Amino acid sequence: MSKTERGVALVTGASSGIGMAAARALRRNGYRVFGTSRKPMANTDDGVTMLVCDVTDDESVQKFVDDVVSRAGRIDLLVNNAGIGLLGGAEESSAAQAKTLFDVNVFGVMRLTNAILPIMRRQRKGRIINMSSILGLIPAPFNALYASTKHAIEGYSESLDHEVRTQGIRVVLVEPGVTRTSFEENLTRADQPLAVYDSVRADAEKLMREIVETGDAPEIVANMVVKSANAASPKRRYTVGKAAGLVRFLRRFMPESFVDKNLRKFNRLPA
């Protein structure tokens, strides 16, 4: 690794949205970047090498990691970004659908992390950035299962950081608010919809579309990924955007009743 290069970075879910923006931002910052997609796609014009990886498959994950090591010789940074959304009432999803969501958003993170930890341990150096969400800190009506996956990532990441810190490895969280990405791209809907929720679920989807349209650009999140990757003494979490920062502050310091009332108001639910 030359003095002008920051190291070798892996970014999952780099075919579009935040993942693509993060991969490109890291490349511009001096990293040799390998991105993943579920289907084969061409390398980017700015030098991001795209490889196929299914984060729900152990063999696919290990093959991807082995391929990167054979090409680059090391792994300095892992950005666990791949994920899917799920819109619907908590009781509207079958257990099988919930398992599928967790297999991508939680166990996919664990698979990649477990595959690269031995490499980073041998190097005595490495950083893992797990993409969380502001919904990892607050309730999310009609996004209960998605929020549950992000709450899980929060607890997993903070705990893992304490376990591997003495091995030269740090684990940090990046918490975007609402980001302007393709609404339909990574969103699934509940597989057992109930008529009792039809109206309020439709309102929740309308609200989500509205706030996505005015959300932060993916590049803002990407810049925070670069910042957290390069920090000499990283923080546990990096909240992205003014709205997300405000939500984090309110959740942490304001009375529970105040937060509850304002969350229902924001989600256009009756008091």
From TrEMBL:
Pfam families: adh_short (PF00106). Keywords: Oxidoreductase. Belongs to the short-chain dehydrogenases/reductases (SDR) family. The keyword Oxidoreductase applies. The keyword Oxidoreductase applies. SUPFAM superfamilies: NAD(P)-binding Rossmann-fold domains. This is Short-chain dehydrogenase protein. Residues 7-199 form the Ketoreductase domain. It comes from Rhizobium gallicum bv. gallicum R602sp. It comes from the Bacteria. Gene3D superfamilies: NAD(P)-binding Rossmann-like Domain. GO terms for molecular function: oxidoreductase activity.
